[in-house]
Every structure is written in C-alpha cells, then in structure tokens.
C-alpha cells in the first residue's frame, strides 16, 4: 500500500487513472474510503488521487487532532502535493474536506488548478451544529448506521478517531471560530460550490441555506459558480455521484464558471 512520510508518520494515499490530477479531500469522521466507487467515475479522464489525513483511515494515528483542524489538514495536503510533484492539481473537497480545499487554494494558489467545494457550511462554524456536537456525536456512536460508517472509514479503532474529531470541532468553535486564515476575497482559483437542497445537516435550518451562503461567498470572491442538486443528502458528491461527476467534468473542462449558477 502506498504511503508517504509526513511529520514522522505514514500517510496513506491512492492514485487511479491518468491525466490531469484531481485530489479528493475527505470530510470529518471520514477517510478516503468515502470516495470508494466515486473516484472511479473520474479515471477515464483524470488521475484520481485520494489521501487519508493523519489520524484517519489507513494513515498513522494521532494522540490528538490539531484544534485548527481544517487548516492543519490543508498543510498536510500541500506537503503531499509538493512531495508527489504533481504540479497544479484540481481539488474536490467534500464537507470538512471543502474547507481544506479552500484553505489550500488560499495558502498555495501555485499548486491549484480548479476547486470544487462540496456541502460545507460557509466561512464560519454553524452554531446549531457546534453547540451540540459532543452530545450528538455520543448519540451517533450508538446508532448502527453511524457505527457502520465510522468502522468502514477507520476500522476497529474508529471511536478514538471520532472522539478526536469531536473535541477538535468543539475547541475550534470556542477558540478560533473561523475556517480560513486568509480572506476569501484573495482566492484566485476558479471555484464551484456544490450541495444538496435536501442535505440533512442544513435543510432543517433553511432549505435555501446553500444558495444563500454560497451566493454571499461567490460575491466576495468575485468569480466562481454554484450548483445545488435538488435531491440527495449529505454530502452531495455521495448522494448524487453520477450527476456530480457530470457537473465536475464540465466545470474542469470549461473556463466559464458562470454557467454553473443555478
């Protein structure tokens, strides 16, 4: 199995297909396993690359996650891209991975082609989520569906991974409270923001949440597009995989992001 050394630990990755590289960035409590099957939809036209952040999946475990989690994971991905000498890569980040993708683009625009940021809450943590995250995660650990997901992502020691993630989210909301170190107005990469209107983590707050928040972000950035899937849960890349692939390929192959606003 392919690994590269990062901070003295082994970090797992996979490569499939040939062509322009796309790096898939997984979300919180997940691993690159969340893209199993989905990445294969891209391999006819692209080199699909997946990565397990430290502490996740098949990568070495950490005693604790960094409180500034999504920025730290961006630094991990930057080191990986440099190590592999990919040159410029397209990024697809989903849920927490979308925050990582945007951070990479802000910090190292020289390494980034285009960006798809899927199913994320915006520039700041959602209070409706963070204020209950500890209780909600404890409840999820008793649910068979959630436990099966966690185990599929990480193996038998999934509970320590989930607990580390929960603590990092809780502490981040208290002490940092924003996802990006640089203003999103400085983002240069072409970017597409995606989500599902029926996303179970968002729709209870506002069924038009993604449209409203993404529109505000695109106005700040000054360029980019939006695609909201009418159906499907969280994240859109998993619940609308075939349609997502079509949208993503069209975005990567076209220079006019405005046509994706819908």
Can you walk me through this structure?
Pfam families: Abhydrolase_1. InterPro entries: AB_hydrolase_1, AB_hydrolase_fold, AB_hydrolase_sf. By secondary structure, this protein is of the alpha/beta class. The protein has helices spanning 69-84, 96-107, 127-130, 133-140, 144-154, 158-175, 209-221, 236-239, 241-253, and strands at residues 3-6, 9-16, 20-25, 46-51, 89-94, 112-118, 190-196, 225-229. An eight-stranded mixed sheet has the order 1-2-4-3-5-6-7-8, sandwiched between helices. It is globular. The N and C termini lie far apart (41 Å).
| Assembly context of the chains | single chain
Report the strand count.
8
State the CATH superfamily name.
Alpha/Beta hydrolase fold, catalytic domain
Number of helices: 9
Query: What is the general shape?
Result: globular
CA(first)-CA(last) distance: 41 Å
- The gyration radius over C-alpha positions equals 17 Å
Name of the CATH first level: Alpha Beta
| CATH architecture designation | 3-Layer(aba) Sandwich
Count of domain modules: 1
Give the CATH topology: Rossmann fold
What level of helicity do the residues show? 25-40%
Strand order of the largest sheet: 1-2-4-3-5-6-7-8
Stretches where pLDDT is under 50 for at least 5 consecutive residues are: none
Strand content: 15-25%
Summarize the helix and strand pattern as letters: EEEEHEHEHHHHEHEHH
Please outline the major beta sheet: 8 strands, mixed
- Helix and strand composition category: alpha/beta
Mean pLDDT: 95
EC number: 3.-.-.-
Protein name: AB hydrolase superfamily protein YdjP
Enzyme class: hydrolase
GO molecular function, one term: hydrolase activity
């Amino acid at each position: 199995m392919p690994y590269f050394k990062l901070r003295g630990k082994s970090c797992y990755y996979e490569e499939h297909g040939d062509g322009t590289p796309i790096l898939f960035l997984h979300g919180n409590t997940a691993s690159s396993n969340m893209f199993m099957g989905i990445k294969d939809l891209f391999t006819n036209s692209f080199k699909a690359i997946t990565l397990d952040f430290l502490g996740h999946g098949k990568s070495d475990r950490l005693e604790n996650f960094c409180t500034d989690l999504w920025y730290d994971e961006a630094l991990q991905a930057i080191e990986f891209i440099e190590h592999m000498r990919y040159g410029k890569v397209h990024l697809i980040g989903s849920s927490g991975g979308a925050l990582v993708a945007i951070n990479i683009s802000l910090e190292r625009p020289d390494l980034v082609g285009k960006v798809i940021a899927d199913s994320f809450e915006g520039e700041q943590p959602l209070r409706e989520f963070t204020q209950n995250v500890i209780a909600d995660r404890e409840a999820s650990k008793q649910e068979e569906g959630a436990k099966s997901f966690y185990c599929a992502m990480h193996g038998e020691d999934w509970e320590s991974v989930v607990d580390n993630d929960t603590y990092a989210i809780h502490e981040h909301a208290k002490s940092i409270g924003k996802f990006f170190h640089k203003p999103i107005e400085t983002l240069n990469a072409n970017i597409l923001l995606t989500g599902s209107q029926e996303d179970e983590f968002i729709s209870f707050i506002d069924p038009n949440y993604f449209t409203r928040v993404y529109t505000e972000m695109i106005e700040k950035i000054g360029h980019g597009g939006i695609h909201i899937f009418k159906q499907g849960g969280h994240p859109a890349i998993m619940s609308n995989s075939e349609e997502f692939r079509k949208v993503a390929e069209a975005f990567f192959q076209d220079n006019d992001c405005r046509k994706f606003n819908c």
